[in-house]
Specification:
323 residues; mainly alpha; Farnesyl Diphosphate Synthase; two-stranded antiparallel ribbon; 74% helix
Length: 323
C-alpha cells in the first residue's frame, strides 16, 4: 500500500517548511498555550489537508513557482484543522489522538478550549492578511461548518431515523468542507478559470467524504493501536455512521439496542455482531469508493503533471486504507 510520505513526495520539501512555520506562527504569549501548540504541531501527523492545498497550488501554477500566499493558505488550512481537532477531543472526551495524549487530557479542558479558540483566531488573522475576500469568505464558511457539524452530531446521538443523506451532510460539515474550500481557495490564488476552480472544489468535497466514510469503517475494523484512539468510540457515544445506518436496514433489533443507548450488559457486543453480520461494512466501502472515483473525475481538466498524479493516487490511497 502506498504511504502518504511517498504520495506527497512532490511537495515533501514544502511540507517540511510548513511544519517549521506552524510552530513559529503559533507564538502564543502565554507559556501554557505555547506548550499546547508545540504539543499539537510536534505530533507526527499525515498533513493531508495542507498537502492537498500544496499539490493543487503546484498543479495549477505550472510552470511557475507557487506564491507565498499559496504556502500561507496551506498553513492556515492545517491550523484550522488542528483547532477543530482540539475542540472535537474536548466534546468527545477523547484521551488519545494519533496515539498521543490529547491537549485536554494533558492540559485540562479549559486550556484545550482556549488553545482551540486561539488557533481559530490566529488562522483568521493570517487569513485576513491574504487580502483576498473570496478566499476569506471560503475559509470563514469552513469554521461555521465545523460548528454546524458538531451541533448536528450532538442532536442526532442515538437517532436511528438518521438517513445516509443526513450522515453525508454532517460528514461534509465536519470533514469535507475544509478540504473542498481550501482546494477551491488554492485555485483562486492561482487565478485559474471558474470551471476548473469549481472542479477542484468538487475534488476536495468528494475526497473529504471518502476520507470520513473510510475513517468511520475503520472505527469498526481497525484496532485501537492502529487508530490511535479507542475503537468503536463513535458507536458507544451514539454517533451513528454509515456501517450502522446500513446495518439497521437488515437488523431491526439493532434499533432496540441503540434506542436504549446500550444500557444493558452485552448490548455493545451484540450491536457489533449485528454490524459484522450485515452488509453495512461492504456497502460503506462501496460508498467510499464511489466518492473517491468521483473525486478523480474532477481532475481531468488539470494538465498532466507529477502533482496531478499525486492527487489521483491520493483518491486510490484513501480507499486502500481499508485493505
Amino acid at each position: 500500500m502506498t504511504s502518504t510520505t511517498s504520495l506527497f513526495s512532490p511537495v515533501e520539501a514544502d511540507l517540511r517548511v510548513l511544519t517549521d512555520n506552524l510552530k513559529t506562527l503559533v507564538s502564543a504569549r502565554h507559556p501554557i498555550l505555547f506548550a499546547a501548540a508545540e504539543h499539537l504541531f510536534g505530533a507526527v501527523g499525515k498533513r493531508v489537508r495542507p498537502a492537498i492545498v500544496l499539490l493543487i497550488s503546484r498543479a495549477t501554477m505550472l510552470p511557475e513557482e507557487i506564491t507565498p500566499r499559496h504556502r500561507r493558505l496551506a498553513e492556515i488550512t492545517e491550523m484550522i484543522h488542528t483547532a477543530s481537532l482540539v475542540h472535537d477531543d474536548v466534546v468527545d472526551e477523547s484521551e488519545l489522538r494519533r496515539g498521543i495524549p490529547t491537549v485536554h487530557s494533558s492540559f485540562g479542558n479549559r486550556i484545550a478550549v482556549l488553545a482551540g479558540d486561539f488557533l481559530f483566531a490566529q488562522s483568521s488573522w493570517y487569513l485576513a492578511n491574504l487580502d483576498n475576500l473570496q478566499v476569506v469568505k471560503l475559509l470563514s464558511e469552513v469554521i461555521k461548518d465545523f460548528a454546524e457539524g458538531e451541533i448536528q452530531q450532538g442532536l442526532n446521538r442515538f437517532d436511528t431515523s438518521l438517513t445516509i443523506e443526513a450522515y453525508l451532510e454532517k460528514s461534509y460539515y465536519k470533514t469535507a468542507s475544509l478540504i473542498a474550500n481550501s482546494s477551491k481557495a488554492a485555485a483562486i490564488l492561482s487565478e485559474v478559470a471558474d470551471d476548473l476552480t469549481e472542479d477542484l472544489y468538487q475534488y476536495g468535497r468528494h475526497i473529504g467524504l471518502a476520507f470520513q466514510i473510510v475513517d468511520d469503517i475503520l472505527d469498526f475494523t481497525a484496532s485501537t493501536e492502529g487508530l490511535g484512539k479507542p475503537a468503536c468510540s463513535d458507536l458507544k457515544s451514539g454517533n451513528l455512521t454509515a456501517p450502522v445506518l446500513y446495518a439497521l436496514e437488515e437488523k431491526p433489533y439493532l434499533e432496540v439496542l441503540i434506542d436504549r443507548e446500550f444500557s444493558q450488559d452485552g448490548d455493545i457486543e451484540q450491536a457489533l455482531a449485528f454490524i459484522s453480520e450485515s452488509k453495512g461494512i461492504d456497502r460503506s466501502r462501496e460508498l467510499a469508493t464511489h466518492h473517491a472515483q468521483q473525486a478523480v473525475q474532477h481532475l481531468l481538466k488539470l494538465p498532466a503533471s507529477e502533482c496531478r498524479q499525486a492527487l489521483i493516487d491520493l483518491a486510490e490511497y484513501v480507499v486502500s486504507r481499508l485493505y
